[in-house]
Amino acid sequence: MSLDVVGHEGYVTVSGELSIDLELACSRCLEPTKEHTVIPFFEQFKPASGETEQGDEDEDEEFVEVTGDRLDLKPYLEEALLVFMPFAPLCAKDCKGLCQTCGENLNERTCSCKHEKIDPRFEALKDLFKE
Length: 131
Ligand SMILES: [Zn+2]
Ligand SMILES: [Zn+2]
Prior knowledge:
It is a single chain. With about 130 residues, this protein is of the alpha+beta class. It has helices spanning about 75-85, 120-125; strands at about 1-5, 10-25, 30-45, 65. The protein has a four-stranded mixed beta sheet with strand order 1-2-3-4. The longest helix has 11 residues, at about 75-85. The chain is rod-shaped. The N and C termini lie far apart (about 65 Å). The mean pLDDT is about 80. Bound molecules: zinc ion (ZN) (2 copies). One zinc ion (ZN) binds near residues 99, 111 and 113.
């Protein structure tokens, strides 16, 4: 993680990149999958004025007001992380997922379950051909 904190008169700019390795479960097969993400971070902070400004709300829109004398970046970094977090991570673009019937990981082996949707009308006929 490399963040530059630059103090200006009256406000502070924090910018940089968060480089993180996430370990998430693949949304299809649940295998752990490593995701390397670089998240750009830019935020401007200024001390809270304490005044309740009305009418000109957009004036300080780009600034995050900070109360107290310590700037705690953690919640902002977490927020940035959440925004960039993959919603449905996949171990591979063509992950085959788990078999709906037996739970086998279909990336590793194929199971003997039938995966095609069987028309219920043919389902009834199937028994006719049983040996
Ligand atoms: Zn997967
Ligand atoms: Zn199966």
